[in-house]
Amino acid sequence: MIATAAKIEDLTLSIDQEIHVKAPLDVTFDSLLEQLGSSMETSAGQAMPMKIEPWPGGRWYRDLGDGNGHLWGHVQAIKRPTLLEIFGPLMMSYAATSNVQYRLSEEAGGTLIKFHHLAIGAIPADRREGLGKGWAYIAAHAKERAETPAGRKNTAR
User: Fold this and answer.
1) Where are the alpha helices (DSSP H) in the chain?
2) Residues 6+ apart with CB under 8 A from 151
3) Angle 65-70-74 (CA atoms, 0-180°, nearest 5)?
4) Which of 83, 48, 42, 53 is nearest to 64 (CA)?
5) Is pTM beyond 0.70 here?
6) N or C: less crowded end of the chain, CB within 10 Å?
7) Which structural domains are found in the chain, ordered by start?
8) What is the pLDDT of residues 39-57, one digit of tens each?
C-alpha cells in the first residue's frame, strides 16, 4: 500500500520569525555565522559545532572526524551583511528539502533579522513542532552573541 498526503499542507512547512538585535548590521551578521558554525548547540544546550563555508556553494555541515558527518545544506546566496540563504535537507534524514533565509536590515537601535524556513517533503509531526523552537533558540543565541562583545569570537570561517 502506498500512503499519500491528503493535502499540500501535509507536505510543507513554513516558519517565519523576526529578531530585533541591538548591534550593528555587520556584527550581527558575523555573530549569526558564528552561531550557525562553531558555536552551534542543540536546544538543550549541548555543543554541536558545525562548519559553514560562507560563500555561494559552500557547505553547512557537522564534521564528526575521520570522514564522517552530516551535510545540512549549501549556501545558495550570501550578500554580506544582509543575506544568508541555505538550501538542503538540514537536520532531516528523510525525504525532505529546505530553503532557509536570513535577511538582515538596519533599524533604529540595531539590526532586524527576518528569518524564513520553507520545507517540503515527508516531515513528521513531532519534527514540525520542534523546528520553530530550534530556530528560535539559534536566533536568541546569535542575538546574545551580537549584543555582548565578550560573546563574539568570530570563528565561523
Assistant:
1) 25-36, 125-147
2) 31, 144, 145
3) 115
4) 48
5) yes
6) N
7) 10-151 (3.30.530.20)
8) 999 888 899 999 999 999 9
